[in-house]
Amino acid sequence: MVGIRTHDLRKVYNSAPPFGAGGGSPPAQRGKQKKPKPEIVALDGLSLEVAAGEVFGLLGPNGAGKSTTVGILTTRVQPTGGQAWIGEHDVWKQQVPVKRVIGVVAQRPNLDFSLTAREILAFHGAYFGLDSHERTKRADALLERFKLTDRADQMVRGFSGGMMQRLSIARAMMHDPQVLFLDEPSAGLDPQTRLLLWEIIREYNHSGKTILLTTHNMEEADALSHRLAIIDHGRMIALGTPGDLKASVPGGYLLRLRFGTNSPELLEKLRSLAGVREVRPVEPNGADVYADRGGSLIPEVATFAASSGAELHDVNISEPSLENLFLHHTGRSLRE
Protein backbone atom coordinates (compact mmCIF):
# COMPACT_ATOMS: atom_id res chain seq x y z
CA MET A 1 0.00 0.00 0.00
CA VAL A 2 1.11 3.54 -0.77
CA GLY A 3 0.69 6.74 1.27
CA ILE A 4 0.98 10.45 0.54
CA ARG A 5 3.06 13.13 2.23
CA THR A 6 3.69 16.83 1.74
CA HIS A 7 5.99 19.14 3.66
CA ASP A 8 5.64 22.94 3.73
CA LEU A 9 4.06 22.93 0.28
CA ARG A 10 3.78 26.36 -1.32
CA LYS A 11 2.38 27.54 -4.63
CA VAL A 12 2.34 31.15 -5.76
CA TYR A 13 0.77 32.06 -9.09
CA ASN A 14 1.94 35.16 -10.96
CA SER A 15 -0.47 36.84 -13.38
CA ALA A 16 -0.35 40.42 -14.62
CA PRO A 17 -3.75 42.19 -14.92
CA PRO A 18 -4.84 42.97 -18.50
CA PHE A 19 -4.35 46.53 -19.75
CA GLY A 20 -8.10 47.03 -20.13
CA ALA A 21 -8.61 46.19 -16.46
CA GLY A 22 -6.41 49.00 -15.23
CA GLY A 23 -3.05 47.38 -15.73
CA GLY A 24 -1.18 50.65 -16.28
CA SER A 25 -0.02 52.57 -19.33
CA PRO A 26 -0.01 51.11 -22.84
CA PRO A 27 3.23 49.30 -23.80
CA ALA A 28 4.57 52.26 -25.80
CA GLN A 29 4.38 54.52 -22.74
CA ARG A 30 5.82 52.11 -20.20
CA GLY A 31 9.38 52.30 -21.40
CA LYS A 32 11.72 49.60 -20.14
CA GLN A 33 10.58 49.68 -16.54
CA LYS A 34 8.55 46.60 -15.60
CA LYS A 35 6.05 46.56 -12.82
CA PRO A 36 6.15 43.61 -10.45
CA LYS A 37 3.55 40.97 -11.19
CA PRO A 38 0.89 40.39 -8.56
CA GLU A 39 1.23 37.24 -6.50
CA ILE A 40 -1.66 34.89 -5.77
CA VAL A 41 -0.82 32.52 -2.92
CA ALA A 42 -2.67 29.25 -3.52
CA LEU A 43 -0.78 27.15 -0.95
CA ASP A 44 0.95 28.63 2.08
CA GLY A 45 3.04 25.95 3.77
CA LEU A 46 0.70 22.93 3.63
CA SER A 47 2.00 19.78 5.34
CA LEU A 48 -0.06 16.59 5.15
CA GLU A 49 0.47 12.92 5.92
CA VAL A 50 -2.01 10.45 4.44
CA ALA A 51 -1.62 6.87 5.65
CA ALA A 52 -1.53 4.03 3.17
CA GLY A 53 -5.03 2.61 2.72
CA GLU A 54 -6.73 5.72 4.09
CA VAL A 55 -9.56 7.77 2.61
CA PHE A 56 -8.41 11.31 3.25
CA GLY A 57 -10.55 14.36 2.53
CA LEU A 58 -9.50 17.91 1.73
CA LEU A 59 -12.46 20.08 2.69
CA GLY A 60 -12.67 23.77 1.94
CA PRO A 61 -14.43 26.46 -0.09
CA ASN A 62 -13.66 27.25 -3.71
CA GLY A 63 -10.23 28.83 -3.94
CA ALA A 64 -8.93 27.21 -0.75
CA GLY A 65 -6.07 25.42 -2.53
CA LYS A 66 -7.56 21.92 -2.82
CA SER A 67 -7.17 21.50 -6.58
CA THR A 68 -3.68 23.03 -6.49
CA THR A 69 -2.67 20.42 -3.90
CA VAL A 70 -3.98 17.63 -6.12
CA GLY A 71 -2.28 19.20 -9.14
CA ILE A 72 1.11 19.13 -7.39
CA LEU A 73 0.69 15.58 -6.11
CA THR A 74 -0.24 14.34 -9.59
CA THR A 75 2.69 16.12 -11.36
CA ARG A 76 0.48 18.64 -13.21
CA VAL A 77 1.40 21.72 -11.14
CA GLN A 78 4.97 22.57 -10.14
CA PRO A 79 5.23 23.82 -6.56
CA THR A 80 6.92 27.10 -5.68
CA GLY A 81 8.39 25.50 -2.56
CA GLY A 82 8.23 22.47 -0.30
CA GLN A 83 8.18 18.78 -1.14
CA ALA A 84 5.66 16.06 -1.92
CA TRP A 85 5.94 12.27 -1.95
CA ILE A 86 3.79 9.42 -3.24
CA GLY A 87 5.03 6.43 -1.28
CA GLU A 88 8.83 6.65 -1.41
CA HIS A 89 8.87 8.72 -4.60
CA ASP A 90 9.56 12.44 -4.64
CA VAL A 91 6.80 13.70 -6.94
CA TRP A 92 8.88 16.25 -8.84
CA LYS A 93 12.10 14.24 -9.01
CA GLN A 94 10.52 10.89 -9.91
CA GLN A 95 7.50 11.72 -12.02
CA VAL A 96 7.44 8.53 -14.10
CA PRO A 97 7.21 6.03 -11.20
CA VAL A 98 4.68 8.34 -9.51
CA LYS A 99 2.42 8.33 -12.57
CA ARG A 100 2.46 4.52 -12.65
CA VAL A 101 0.87 4.22 -9.20
CA ILE A 102 -1.72 7.01 -9.29
CA GLY A 103 -5.12 7.47 -10.88
CA VAL A 104 -6.58 10.94 -11.31
CA VAL A 105 -10.11 12.22 -11.78
CA ALA A 106 -10.05 15.90 -12.61
CA GLN A 107 -12.71 18.35 -11.48
CA ARG A 108 -14.11 18.52 -15.02
CA PRO A 109 -14.38 15.48 -17.33
CA ASN A 110 -11.63 15.45 -19.99
CA LEU A 111 -12.79 12.59 -22.14
CA ASP A 112 -12.07 12.13 -25.85
CA PHE A 113 -15.44 12.75 -27.53
CA SER A 114 -14.33 10.91 -30.68
CA LEU A 115 -14.17 7.58 -28.82
CA THR A 116 -16.73 5.24 -27.29
CA ALA A 117 -16.76 4.50 -23.55
CA ARG A 118 -15.21 1.08 -24.15
CA GLU A 119 -12.49 2.51 -26.39
CA ILE A 120 -11.59 5.14 -23.77
CA LEU A 121 -11.05 2.46 -21.13
CA ALA A 122 -9.15 0.17 -23.52
CA PHE A 123 -6.87 2.98 -24.68
CA HIS A 124 -6.10 3.94 -21.08
CA GLY A 125 -5.29 0.33 -20.23
CA ALA A 126 -2.97 0.04 -23.23
CA TYR A 127 -1.20 3.23 -22.17
CA PHE A 128 -0.37 1.53 -18.86
CA GLY A 129 0.81 -1.68 -20.53
CA LEU A 130 -2.16 -4.00 -20.03
CA ASP A 131 -2.48 -6.77 -22.61
CA SER A 132 -5.57 -7.12 -24.79
CA HIS A 133 -7.20 -9.81 -22.65
CA GLU A 134 -6.70 -7.89 -19.40
CA ARG A 135 -7.94 -4.64 -20.99
CA THR A 136 -11.15 -6.29 -22.16
CA LYS A 137 -11.73 -8.00 -18.83
CA ARG A 138 -11.21 -4.84 -16.76
CA ALA A 139 -13.19 -2.61 -19.12
CA ASP A 140 -16.20 -4.96 -19.03
CA ALA A 141 -16.09 -5.14 -15.22
CA LEU A 142 -15.83 -1.36 -14.78
CA LEU A 143 -18.56 -0.62 -17.32
CA GLU A 144 -20.84 -2.99 -15.43
CA ARG A 145 -19.94 -1.59 -12.01
CA PHE A 146 -20.50 2.00 -13.11
CA LYS A 147 -23.78 1.07 -14.85
CA LEU A 148 -22.52 2.03 -18.31
CA THR A 149 -22.70 -1.34 -20.09
CA ASP A 150 -25.73 -0.36 -22.21
CA ARG A 151 -23.84 2.72 -23.49
CA ALA A 152 -20.41 1.09 -23.75
CA ASP A 153 -20.17 1.28 -27.54
CA GLN A 154 -21.62 4.77 -27.98
CA MET A 155 -19.66 7.99 -28.46
CA VAL A 156 -19.32 9.82 -25.16
CA ARG A 157 -20.27 13.17 -26.71
CA GLY A 158 -23.89 12.15 -26.12
CA PHE A 159 -23.39 11.27 -22.45
CA SER A 160 -24.89 13.26 -19.61
CA GLY A 161 -22.61 15.00 -17.12
CA GLY A 162 -23.16 12.25 -14.56
CA MET A 163 -22.30 9.52 -17.08
CA MET A 164 -19.12 11.35 -18.08
CA GLN A 165 -18.10 11.61 -14.43
CA ARG A 166 -18.71 7.90 -13.87
CA LEU A 167 -16.66 7.05 -16.97
CA SER A 168 -13.86 9.39 -15.82
CA ILE A 169 -13.62 7.52 -12.52
CA ALA A 170 -13.77 4.14 -14.26
CA ARG A 171 -10.91 5.25 -16.52
CA ALA A 172 -8.83 6.32 -13.50
CA MET A 173 -9.36 2.85 -11.97
CA MET A 174 -8.58 0.98 -15.20
CA HIS A 175 -4.89 0.36 -14.40
CA ASP A 176 -5.71 -0.43 -10.74
CA PRO A 177 -3.69 2.43 -9.20
CA GLN A 178 -2.49 2.27 -5.60
CA VAL A 179 -3.47 5.91 -5.00
CA LEU A 180 -6.64 7.47 -6.40
CA PHE A 181 -7.14 11.24 -6.53
CA LEU A 182 -10.71 12.50 -6.82
CA ASP A 183 -11.11 16.26 -7.28
CA GLU A 184 -14.70 17.23 -6.38
CA PRO A 185 -15.94 13.81 -7.55
CA SER A 186 -19.66 14.35 -6.93
CA ALA A 187 -19.96 17.94 -8.16
CA GLY A 188 -23.10 18.27 -10.26
CA LEU A 189 -24.23 14.67 -9.73
CA ASP A 190 -27.80 13.72 -8.89
CA PRO A 191 -28.34 12.11 -5.45
CA GLN A 192 -28.70 8.57 -6.83
CA THR A 193 -25.46 8.76 -8.82
CA ARG A 194 -23.68 10.34 -5.85
CA LEU A 195 -24.65 7.40 -3.61
CA LEU A 196 -23.43 4.92 -6.26
CA LEU A 197 -20.13 6.79 -6.44
CA TRP A 198 -19.71 6.72 -2.66
CA GLU A 199 -20.34 2.97 -2.64
CA ILE A 200 -17.69 2.40 -5.33
CA ILE A 201 -15.15 4.61 -3.51
CA ARG A 202 -15.64 2.58 -0.32
CA GLU A 203 -15.24 -0.69 -2.23
CA TYR A 204 -12.03 0.49 -3.86
CA ASN A 205 -10.63 1.60 -0.52
CA HIS A 206 -11.52 -1.76 1.06
CA SER A 207 -9.22 -3.40 -1.50
CA GLY A 208 -6.31 -1.58 0.17
CA LYS A 209 -6.12 1.53 -1.98
CA THR A 210 -5.33 5.03 -0.74
CA ILE A 211 -7.84 7.70 -1.76
CA LEU A 212 -7.51 11.47 -1.52
CA LEU A 213 -10.64 13.42 -2.38
CA THR A 214 -11.32 17.14 -2.42
CA THR A 215 -14.76 18.48 -1.73
CA HIS A 216 -16.72 21.41 -0.35
CA ASN A 217 -19.62 19.03 0.35
CA MET A 218 -19.69 18.50 4.13
CA GLU A 219 -21.93 15.43 3.85
CA GLU A 220 -19.53 13.77 1.41
CA ALA A 221 -16.48 14.50 3.58
CA ASP A 222 -18.29 13.16 6.64
CA ALA A 223 -19.54 10.01 4.92
CA LEU A 224 -16.32 8.94 3.18
CA SER A 225 -13.26 10.26 5.00
CA HIS A 226 -11.36 8.38 7.69
CA ARG A 227 -9.64 11.69 8.38
CA LEU A 228 -9.83 15.08 6.76
CA ALA A 229 -8.04 18.40 6.67
CA ILE A 230 -10.05 21.60 6.46
CA ILE A 231 -8.08 24.19 4.51
CA ASP A 232 -8.65 27.83 3.69
CA HIS A 233 -6.43 30.30 1.81
CA GLY A 234 -3.86 27.55 1.31
CA ARG A 235 -3.45 26.79 5.02
CA MET A 236 -4.70 23.95 7.19
CA ILE A 237 -7.11 25.15 9.87
CA ALA A 238 -8.19 21.77 11.29
CA LEU A 239 -7.21 18.11 11.00
CA GLY A 240 -8.79 14.96 12.40
CA THR A 241 -11.57 12.42 12.01
CA PRO A 242 -14.98 13.84 11.10
CA GLY A 243 -16.29 12.87 14.53
CA ASP A 244 -13.43 14.51 16.42
CA LEU A 245 -13.65 17.67 14.35
CA LYS A 246 -17.39 18.03 14.92
CA ALA A 247 -16.90 17.41 18.64
CA SER A 248 -14.34 20.25 18.75
CA VAL A 249 -17.01 22.88 17.98
CA PRO A 250 -17.77 24.69 21.27
CA GLY A 251 -20.96 23.20 22.69
CA GLY A 252 -21.76 21.50 19.42
CA TYR A 253 -24.97 23.38 18.58
CA LEU A 254 -24.90 26.62 16.62
CA LEU A 255 -27.75 29.11 16.88
CA ARG A 256 -27.64 31.84 14.23
CA LEU A 257 -29.76 34.69 15.53
CA ARG A 258 -30.89 37.89 13.83
CA PHE A 259 -32.41 40.79 15.77
CA GLY A 260 -34.06 44.06 14.82
CA THR A 261 -31.23 45.82 16.65
CA ASN A 262 -28.17 44.58 18.47
CA SER A 263 -26.21 45.78 21.48
CA PRO A 264 -23.22 44.74 23.63
CA GLU A 265 -25.60 44.38 26.58
CA LEU A 266 -27.71 41.82 24.72
CA LEU A 267 -24.62 39.81 23.75
CA GLU A 268 -23.50 39.76 27.39
CA LYS A 269 -26.93 38.51 28.46
CA LEU A 270 -26.72 35.73 25.87
CA ARG A 271 -23.29 34.72 27.20
CA SER A 272 -24.79 34.33 30.68
CA LEU A 273 -27.31 31.68 29.58
CA ALA A 274 -26.77 28.16 30.91
CA GLY A 275 -25.08 25.96 28.29
CA VAL A 276 -23.80 28.85 26.14
CA ARG A 277 -20.10 28.42 25.36
CA GLU A 278 -19.44 31.29 23.01
CA VAL A 279 -21.24 34.29 21.45
CA ARG A 280 -19.94 36.08 18.38
CA PRO A 281 -21.52 39.24 16.92
CA VAL A 282 -22.46 39.04 13.25
CA GLU A 283 -23.04 42.20 11.25
CA PRO A 284 -25.34 43.99 10.99
CA ASN A 285 -27.70 42.78 13.76
CA GLY A 286 -26.95 39.13 14.35
CA ALA A 287 -25.14 36.78 16.68
CA ASP A 288 -23.73 33.27 16.45
CA VAL A 289 -24.30 31.37 19.69
CA TYR A 290 -22.41 28.13 20.33
CA ALA A 291 -24.14 26.10 23.03
CA ASP A 292 -24.70 22.66 24.56
CA ARG A 293 -28.39 22.80 23.65
CA GLY A 294 -30.48 24.10 20.80
CA GLY A 295 -34.25 24.63 20.76
CA SER A 296 -34.61 24.89 24.53
CA LEU A 297 -32.55 28.10 24.46
CA ILE A 298 -34.94 29.99 22.21
CA PRO A 299 -37.51 31.08 24.85
CA GLU A 300 -34.71 32.49 27.02
CA VAL A 301 -33.12 34.22 24.03
CA ALA A 302 -36.47 35.78 23.11
CA THR A 303 -36.98 36.96 26.69
CA PHE A 304 -33.55 38.60 26.84
CA ALA A 305 -34.09 40.19 23.43
CA ALA A 306 -37.44 41.68 24.50
CA SER A 307 -35.98 43.05 27.76
CA SER A 308 -33.22 44.72 25.72
CA GLY A 309 -35.67 46.24 23.25
CA ALA A 310 -34.34 44.05 20.42
CA GLU A 311 -36.95 42.02 18.55
CA LEU A 312 -35.88 38.49 17.57
CA HIS A 313 -36.40 38.28 13.79
CA ASP A 314 -34.88 34.97 12.79
CA VAL A 315 -33.41 31.80 14.32
CA ASN A 316 -31.50 28.98 12.63
CA ILE A 317 -30.34 25.99 14.70
CA SER A 318 -27.84 23.44 13.45
CA GLU A 319 -26.39 20.39 15.15
CA PRO A 320 -22.64 19.62 15.28
CA SER A 321 -21.27 19.64 11.73
CA LEU A 322 -18.16 20.30 9.67
CA GLU A 323 -19.88 23.41 8.33
CA ASN A 324 -20.12 24.76 11.89
CA LEU A 325 -16.46 23.97 12.48
CA PHE A 326 -15.42 25.92 9.40
CA LEU A 327 -17.69 28.79 10.39
CA HIS A 328 -16.20 28.83 13.89
CA HIS A 329 -12.64 29.03 12.56
CA THR A 330 -13.17 31.52 9.73
CA GLY A 331 -16.42 33.38 10.43
CA ARG A 332 -17.83 32.39 7.03
CA SER A 333 -19.60 29.50 5.39
CA LEU A 334 -17.95 26.79 3.30
CA ARG A 335 -20.37 27.71 0.55
CA GLU A 336 -19.32 31.36 0.39
Explain this structure to me?
The protein starts with a strand and ends in a 6-residue tail after the last helix. The protein has 336 residues and is of the alpha/beta class. A 6-stranded mixed beta sheet has the order 6-7-8-3-9-10, with helices on both faces. Strands 2-1-4-5 form a 4-stranded antiparallel beta sheet, covered by helices on one side. It has a 4-stranded antiparallel beta sheet with strand order 12-13-11-14, with helices on one face. It folds into 2 domains: 4-16 and 39-242, 3-Layer(aba) Sandwich (Rossmann fold); 250-319, YebC, transcriptional regulation domain (Alpha-Beta Plaits, 2-Layer Sandwich). Helix 7 (191-206) links the parallel strand 7 and strand 8 (210-215). It has helices spanning 27-30, 66-73, 95-101, 117-127, 132-145, 161-173, 191-206, 218-224, 242-247, 264-271, 298-307, 322-330; strands at residues 4-14, 39-50, 55-59, 81-86, 89-90, 102-105, 179-183, 210-215, 227-232, 235-240, 253-259, 276-282, 286-291, 312-318. Mean pLDDT is 87; it is low at 16-25. The chain is built from 12 helices and 14 strands. Helix 4 runs parallel beside helix 6.
Give, in spatial order, the strands making up the sheet with the most strands.
6-7-8-3-9-10
Tally of alpha and pi helices = 12
Largest sheet: 6 strands, mixed
The number of strands is: 14
CATH superfamily of the largest domain: P-loop containing nucleotide triphosphate hydrolases
- Helical content band: 25-40%
- Average pLDDT across residues? 87
